[in-house]
Amino acid sequence: MKVTRIIAAAAMSAVLAGTAQAQANTANCTGGTPSASPCRVQNTVSATIPWVARMSIASATTLPSPIAEDFGNTAGKSTTAPTTLTVSANAGVSVTATAASAIWTGPYAKPASDLRIFLPSAPTSFLALNNTTGQPVFSSTTPTSSTNVDIGYNVLYSWGTDIPGSYTLAVNYTLTSP
Amino acid sequence: MFHGVFVARVVGFPTMTVRRPLTRLLAALGVALTVLPSLAAAQVACNGGASCALTVTLRLGRPQVFRLALSDGTTTVPPLSSSDFATGFKDVAGPTVSVLANSPYRITVQAALSTWQYSGSQANPAKGAADLQWSRSASGPWFASSNASTLWPASGSSAPATAGTTVPLFYRTLWQWTSSPPGTYALPVNITLTSP
Asked: Are residues A105 and A141 in the same domain?
């Protein structure tokens, strides 16, 4: 009886080994003669990529000190060197600028709208800032890799209100997916 | 091709003793015992007397056998951040490859497709399989999966027979701002055992 069982077991083992050769694309593969039929298993690598964007800019910009001719001048006083904003995104992206507060900090409650931004390519097209609505700075419908956006600042000065002192206004740049 | 012969001594009733450690090893390796049909069908007889002896000859085939297994069939890359895009890659530990083999073998790795499968709202970027690299170590060196490269052995053309070898697999995925739009990516990777 035991001989019979062993033979039967051997026969079954031979059958299983034969069918195992046909296995593929699973996490396990068992069989024989890999030179004749390679054993192959598969591991699928997957990733979910979100909309990803990145930007950088100098943390502080010092504006040129105004002279007498700048006070009351509707053309304001512009920076001579642009501030560079660097933008990267794996899909379309837009950047807006907003004043972080309604007024500057300083000896006088200077309104945020006295700060205007412009692009060096259009040095007289000023966009007044406020703390509610963002002004468009950059927009792209396609992915971008390290695109530099030069930004200029322009400030309005008034004889009657801009008393001497140091003024500061934070500007928020916001990346959004269009 | 047969490489060995077993001789079982049958005394009295047709019982047989087979050394268990060997059978266990064979079972672990998935070895198929093959009994010659002529022997299986042969008649053995023992007539008369208080005892008698019969000899049954079993022939054991020893083919090339192996077992290749992965600890996991899928590998998920952790969520990417803008920093990952800035550095250009994201690493992830892959499965562990386990091998049992009774003869020399070699394991290769190669992407099953030339480009990643993409699902998303953007146009298919046809991200190349070369953007998936693999390594035996988390620190590299890294090999492009677009070509078949040897995972194991680390050097030489083949590894010797083994009763259990495990090889870790690590992946490095490459990402670019302009060619990796939002969406889901998948790339099947074939891990193949062959005899040299």
From this structure: yes
Domain limits for position A41? 1-46
Residues A36 and A59 both lie in one domain:
no
From chain A, the residues in CB contact with B176 under 8 A are 145
pLDDT tens-digit map of A83-124: 899 999 999 999 999 999 999 999 999 999 999 999 888 888
The reported pLDDT for the residue numbered A36 is: 64
Taking contacts as CB-CB distances below 8 angstroms, the residues of chain A near B162 are none
CATH code (residue A105): 2.60.40
- Å from B147 to nearest chain A CA? 15
Strands (DSSP E) contained in A7-51 are 28-32, 39-49
Q: What CATH number is attached to the domain comprising B72?
A: 2.60.40.1090
A89 against A12, higher pLDDT:
A89
CA distances to A58, A84, A85, A129, A134 from A173, rounded to whole Å, are 12, 12, 9, 11, 8
Tokens standing for residue B83:
């920093």
Domain residues for the domain of B11 are: 2-61
With an 8 Å Cβ cutoff, are B189 and A43 in contact?
A: yes
Position A145 pLDDT exceeds 60: yes
Long-range contacts of B115-118 (CB under 8 A, 24+ apart): B116/B185, B116/B186, B116/B187, B117/B185, B117/B186, B117/B187, B118/B183, B118/B184, B118/B185
Q: Which two tokens stand for residue A53?
A: 């964007």
Q: The pTM is what? A: 0.72
pLDDT value of position B23: 44
The C-alpha of B75 sits at a distance from chain A's nearest C-alpha, in angstroms, of 5
Which of B177, B189, B192 should be substituted to probe chain A, the one whose Cβ sees the most A Cβ atoms within 10 Å? B177
Among B10, B39, B61, where does a domain finish?
A: B61
> ipTM higher than 0.85?
no
Q: Verify whether the Cβ–Cβ distance B192 to A39 is below 8 Å.
A: yes
